[in-house]
Design brief:
66% helix, mainly alpha
Length: 152
């Protein structure tokens, strides 16, 4: 049985910075092209069309949450979870949908709370998040909730 946790090659600093710049460039476009962003995040990882649809819903949820927020260094807040998922997609041999969702939402309990976002933006983000959860099976929902809890 193949160990799916055996990784691929580690990214160099230059590769990471290039990837980060490409993702940031897509985020700064007048109109976000979600399929292009998805392709950048997934890199060599392969996912079915239904799984890609779930990931696009995950993007919508984190975008609704982070909105135009910026990190201390000025980068979009949403860049961090996208980079985390992109790194995971490149370093795990066979990342699963659950793996990437955990990476995308790993700071949900810290950054995307009602207190941090305000009631209206939190409700908008939570609506997207619940739509995404509705597309998952019971075990996948449980794993996502558990991963979010442990990673936050």
């Amino acid at each position: 049985m193949e160990n799916r946790h055996v990784g691929r090659e580690v990214l160099t600093v230059e590769e990471f910075l290039t990837l980060s710049a490409k993702i940031n460039y897509q985020l700064s476009a007048r109109e976000l092209k979600a399929p292009v962003l998805l392709s950048l995040v997934l890199g060599p990882a392969t996912f079915s069309e239904p799984e890609q649809a779930v990931l696009l819903d995950a993007f919508a949820a984190i975008q609704a949450g982070y909105d135009q927020d910026r990190r201390r260094l000025g980068t979009p807040g949403v860049l961090h979870p996208l980079r985390a998922a992109a790194l995971l997609a490149r370093t795990m041999r066979q990342p699963t949908l659950a793996d990437l969702l955990a990476a995308l939402f790993h700071d949900k309990e810290e950054d995307l709370t009602q207190e941090a976002l305000g009631a209206e933006r939190f409700a908008r983000m939570q609506k997207h998040f619940e739509k995404l959860r509705g597309q998952l099976g019971v075990l996948e929902r449980h794993r996502l909730d558990s991963d979010i809890k442990w990673l936050s």
